[in-house]
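Entry:
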Amino acid sequence: MASGDAQRAWFPEMLADLKQRWLSHEMTWDEIAVLCREMTEQRRRIKELRNIKPSSGTCKTCGGNLVMPSISIRSVLFALLKTGVIDDDHFQRLERDWKKHRKINGLDAYGNESKGFKGTPVTY
């Protein structure tokens, strides 16, 4: 196992898949949210196939085991920027649009409806 693989959020094959899917068509925020779930599952499968054990750690509050969080929409945007699929201006515009869309629709970082949201979701 390569050093750092237990903490790795993005593997090269995931980045290649992300790039291909992003460039194939303009994605809606709902499609990006689905992509995040698929990328999280792909990461889980890669780690399982390569027998990469999760990094160890426990929560100081509850004593439970720490787990790597799911891939968020911002994580997708940063991965697109890092791989050169989008430039800094495009990244800034997408990040601003995501923040606005998230607030208006009461979504969490993964594109899911936040608990306690009382508004009416808006689609573009």
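The mean pLDDT is 87.
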